[in-house]
Amino acid sequence: MSATPSAASGGSLSGSPAGSRPGTLPGTARGTTTRGEHAASGTVGALEAPVESASARATRPGGRGPLGWLRRAGWRHVIGIVFSLYALLPIAYIVSVSLKPHGTLTGSNELFIEFSFESYARVLSDPAHPFGQWFLNSLLVGLCTAAGTVFLGALAAYSFSRMRFRGRRMGLLSLILLQMFPQLLAVVAVFLLVSKLGTIVPWLGVNSPAALIAVYLGGALGVNTYLMYGFFNTVPMSIDEAAKLDGAGHARIFFTIILRLVAPILAVVGLLSFIATMNDFVISSVILVDPQKQTLAVGLYNMVSNPNYADWSAFAAGAVMAALPVVIIFVALQRYIVGGLTAGSVK
Amino acid sequence: MVNKSQLAGFGALAAATALALSACGGSGSGAASSSSDSSAPASSSSSSAPASAAGSLTVWVDSERASALKDVAADYEKNTGIAVKIVSKATDKIKDDFTQQGSAAGGPDVVMGAHDWIGELVKNGIAAPIELGDKSADFSDVAIKASTYQGKTYMLPYAVENLALLRNTELAPEAPSSFDDMIATGTKAGLKQPFVVQQGKEGDPYHLYPFQTAFGAPVFGTDANGDYDASQLLLGQGTKFADWLSEQGKAGTISTEITGDIAADKFAKGQAAYWLTGPWNVKAAEAAGIKIAVDPIPSPTDQPAAPFAGVKGFFINEHSENKLAATDFLVNYIGTEPVQTKLFESSAVLPALTAAADKAASDPVIAGFQKAGENAVPMPAIPEMGVVFENWGVAEAAILDGKDAQKTWNDLVTKVEKAIAQ
Amino acid sequence: MTQTAEPGQAPSGTPAPTARPERRRRGDRVGPSLGPFILKLVLVGLFDALVLLLLMLLLGKREWTIFGVVLVAAAAINVIYLKKGALPAKYLTPGVVFLLIFQIFTLVYTCYVAFTNYSSGHVLSKPEAVQALLSQNQTRVPDSPAYPLTVVSKGSELGFLVVDPVTGQAQLGTESRPLTDVQAEITDGKAVSTDGWQSLTFAEILAKQNEIFSLVVPRSDDAADGTLRTQDGRTGYQFVSGLSYDADAGTLTDTAQGTVYTDGGKGAFVSSSGETLMPGWSVNVGTENFTRAFTEESIRGPLLKVTLWTFAFALLSVATTFGLGMFLAVVFNKKGMRGRKIYQAIMILPYAFPAFLAAMVWAGMYSKSYGFFNQVLLGGASIPWLEDPTLAKIAVLMLNLWLGFPYMFLVCLGALQSIPDELEEAAKTDGASAWQAFRLIKFPLLLVSVAPLLIASFAFNFNNFNVIYMLTGGGPRDMDAAIPVGETDILISLVYKVAFTGQERDYGLASAFSIIIFVIVAVISIVSFRRTKALEEVN
């Protein structure tokens, strides 16, 4: 691993805590160098990492036998299993309710005593619940919002990370402060705004998915921008400088170089935004009032908003199905998030 | 140095975003137009006339009634050319949304709700009075009484709901003669919890009210017109009820631990023979394979245990541009026997219109609820009821959980009196 | 030599696949090329076309203010993208446009409402309130009959053709002409037509429904006889107006008592004896809501307790969710660990389900006699999870941990990708224990990217109304307090209870409280930012 020029210059770390506390631990200085190198090479190191750690594991002390396995790798599985149970228990409840036709949400601790897909059939076939349509609406709104959020957020994060301008710190701070505003009246405000918009541009009015996406994109800059900003900062400036010397403009640097290097955080932000959109019913229920236009969250919430008539089993079935896209998208993005493919895409 | 040409990619990011959005919006509205076509096939024939100019009605309904009303609305559209757009709203949001959005553009013309909203809606100036004329005689007394506020009708009633006792006929073949008889029979059948009624950490006064009335303690007295009068708080007469409640709490016959879900579960499993609940739970009980009978609520005293009647109906938005069409839709259409019967068929709640109710009563379950509701009184719709509800259930829950009955009840009364006086 | 993949290095290094597109376009380096410039022009053009369309629409609707704002904004955007330089603006504008329209509007609206009396009984504008009052005070003359009615018109004049239910005589009247006898064709007791007037079909009635709905036909020259109105275009009823509005004086007069109600300046009509007519309307009340927020008696008592718990709740929520999320992210960030993708997918599951559903399931699991925790996990214990003040707090935190750790897990997993494993390996080679290596190397680096998020998370939880509301509703209730405040109430839920009690909704007061809470949170956050140096310049 020869040190590249960019890594050697690796000045982008001076602001980081690791850099600001030199010498607290032997190897810190070296660590920063390696870090710069790593980031500079666009997580190329990730390509080697599995090999490396695999070989490291083979030679690592720990011994053979179950105890050795536990010390080497098994403890991770122990933690994995324990916390999987923690994460899954309430969900198992929900799944169990969904498999029990007319089951109630609480009150029964005997999980999975019945196994019937009747509630699923009920949700899917009831004409009052155009579940398929809700599903499509949710995907449309969720994906558009996620894409928009990533795009707008990345643009902003890039400028905050790479450019120095007046009001930059203030801007960064206000982005986060804005989102701290208590939203007790958000629903009223959003309704007024959207119905006003609708009188001017009908396709941005009440019942329009475009209006909903636009409202969501109003929150595109915020905490997520910060998350991206932090990640952008780990990409050394030297890359930009090298590209600039090479004649690339800022647009090309951003689109063709930087965006690839920050792929994991883009995937995370996209996923966070997608999930938030999928689960929101406060804003969406104000904008999408026609059952055919509603998203899953709104439609499902409406199904149980009257406790007397709440069909919890059908609702649980709907919620289980609604969770699927989130899981699928996570699995699809997982390789970006955990870095494996970033290297591949660069290659 | 920034190369000018490289700026190009960003030249119109806003435009690109706008385009992306319009693409999303375009596809969205495309789907919309096709869906509205398919959902209202009847419209094509009649709306060729100046029907669209004649206006359309936006009707907010809670989601469980949306599909029933859709059919009914389609027929109305066929007859009159008025397009009725059914909007399904979350039940717990309709009232606040109506208040906030009623006067704004795009607000509803007609809103489905419950009679206990009337006081608030009138105070906010959002509900328009509806003149029923001679038609009011066609509705049940309790329905009309509930829909009337300060001498005027504000709601077209369509259904009356009240609590009754569901009985598992296999565990308890006979209707109980009194509350104690019920518990004794159930206990003899070997049940640990023979009777269930939904409570919770914060209590549930609606479900305990029949017992309270059996002890002669309504919430408010009525004035000369028969309207509830906030200056006559009669809650204070309920100290005997408080004592009784405390005993039940100690005996475990009524418990704050038994939530709606747990009650349903126990009844469905045959662990409880009696369930004090509303018509909304009949389907669940039957689906669990329980053979049920519906009985009047057994009284713990020699006075009848009278439940609250909840009346469902439709309001007209005072600020609607289509009040005439809305009135026609409600008074001359929803208020007619065939439509009330049709709504009954899809929702299985006792119709407010007497003719439809009589027809519906051929169903023994409906007849049972009707009988149990003979003494029912409308839940007070006056705004002061809000303060009562805020403190009432918690006090009852505290008594059930073992707090001193007399003190808790008296505290409740003082607190409500103080809040009303403010 | 994997490093050759680094694009910036391409010119001097060995040609690598990635370098290729860079090289192909290397001609761009000298002087501006036409392609991108045209693309930019096209996009700006498209944008301007859309703006133009919007402006035309606004022109049609005579929305002058919005017209002006759009025009100025569009001009600014054009300048930003067509002018050289102003690079940050080019990147920030798209997001900021949405931010300004949708986020800032909410903020501005809240601030606006905070200075009004927008609340139950004051949700309308003044003309709307007058309309509602007049409408509510139309009283049908007691025991008066119903008139079968046909709406007729002559030219633009509308009239009612009715049959007097008592005499059976057909009568016609208009707004200016009281009912007078006419000859008419009567079918089934209803006068259907009369000479010289055209009977309106239902569709025609609908086309003029507002005019007809508000048409008032005097029954006779004597005003006490009342007026005839119709609500459905088919039947007329005799009404008397309980109130009359004098538009010039702006007063309402009780027609029976003669009481005069004037605009009391507080958004309602008031009589000289102080009687108020409801509904009122929304007016500016200055800083009254803020004064009330600071002097509100009912909030005083529990305020200190609630504030302390709010801070504890927010801090502990952040600490637990971040702690667990980071821990799991680090554990499962081990490359080559078998099944780690499955574990990771499981860890985000709690996030994929609607929170209120999860809260309900948790509430059920916490149940003292029937809950899963007591019955199954603790073998029949009867721990009062939601009834005991301390346990209820723990219960809320446990739920919030479950709801929140997937977010932190995802965020940490993402952030960890910028930290190479080699760092840790290196430290270990230098003799540091695994824990030391993590604590001194990875953790600080991780903190750089997530520190602002932790502050944001603190602020979010500070106002996390939903989780409290869904699980405990703020309970267990404090039975002695004047307002329904409970042991797990946080500031925002307390505010909610004060502003929205019973059937009363005080949006003005709620807004004032929102602003006050915002100021508190913002100050704490700014101080925290300073401390974490999260805003330190990178270079």
Describe the overall structure:
The complex is a heterotrimer of chains A (347), B (422) and C (539). Helix content of chain A is 70%, strand content 0%. Chain A has 347 residues and is mainly α. Chain A has three domains: 5-59, no CATH class; 65-124; 128-346, MetI-like fold. By secondary structure, chain B is an alpha/beta fold. In chain B, the strands form four sheets. In chain B, strands 1, 2, 3, 4, 7, 14, 15 and 16 form an eight-stranded mixed sheet that branches. In chain B, strand 1 (56-62), helix 4 and strand 2 (83-89) form a beta-alpha-beta unit. The radius of gyration of chain B is 25 Å and the shape is globular. Residues 1-53 of chain B have low confidence and may be disordered. Chain C is an alpha+beta fold and 539 residues long. Chain C contains 18 helices and 16 strands. In chain C, strands 1, 2, 3, 4, 5, 8, 9, 10 and 11 form a nine-stranded antiparallel sheet that branches. In chain C, strands 12-13-14-15-16 form a five-stranded antiparallel sheet, covered by helices on one side. In chain C, strands 6-7 form a two-stranded antiparallel sheet. The longest helix of chain C is centred in the middle third of the chain and has 36 residues, at 297-332. Chain C is elongated, with a radius of gyration of 35 Å. In chain C, 47% of the residues are buried. Chains in contact: A-B, A-C, B-C. Chains A and C meet through helix 3, helix 4, helix 5, helix 7 and helix 8 of A and helix 2, helix 4, helix 9, helix 10 and helix 11 of C.
